[in-house]
Amino acid sequence: xxxxxxxxxxxxxxxxxxxxxxxxxxxxxxxxxxxxxxxxxxxxxxxxxxxxxxxxxxxxxxxxxxxxxxxxxxxxxxxxxxxxxxxxxxxxxxxxxxxxxxxxxxxxxxxxxxxxxxxxxxxxxxxxxxxxxxxxxxxxxxxxxxxxxxxxxxxxxxxxxxxxxxxxxxxxxxxxxxxxxxxxxxxxxxxxxxxxxxxxxxxxxxxxxxxxxxxxxxxxxxxxxxxxxxxx
Length: 232
Description:
Elements: H1 4-17, H2 22-29, H3 33-41, H4 51-57, H5 62-67, H6 73-83, H7 100-107, H8 113-125, E1 128-129, H9 130-137, H10 142-149, E2 152-153, H11 159-165, H12 171-182, H13 191-194, H14 201-210, H15 217-228
Parallel strand pairs: 1-2
Helix pairs in contact: 1-3, 2-3, 6-7, 8-10, 9-10, 9-11, 10-12
């Protein structure tokens, strides 16, 4: 598994092997000396776009630099493609690996939202459990989340999980969940967690109750929410 601390220790060894100060390295990378210190202490990781420059400065391969972090094979492939500016060339068969979602979650903090949008295409083609989307949501843009939701497995979505997830959803993604409630694929109790973030749903829910699609208990849930001004 990718380990930022091991990268930092490796970078420090490379720098000292060249009898180079942190300030000298920072000048070459066009970052602050404090940034170099954080890299070496494992407190942060460089922008992936400068990994190739680091490899060139120390006359090593990009692979050896990335492998110093002890990544999984999936993590190494993704990071290498991103560092080379070839994210759209990540092999499609990578996304059929059973461990790919966990690997992406582990390196997601290092990736830009635009990069994750490309990766979301691969993940969505193979389906993904809703619990994994929750973990990725804080790093992804709205379009990426929607891609994943449209081909996700929702079996494990409960009220607690939705409460953590919904602040990151735009209206289109919220509607995916609402429609699954309407079609009986998800329990109507989930609406209680959606109301603080999607009060526009009231009209749709009223119509669903009148059509007999939704239980009248949902109307009481909405009424209680408005009366008490809080999430039930």
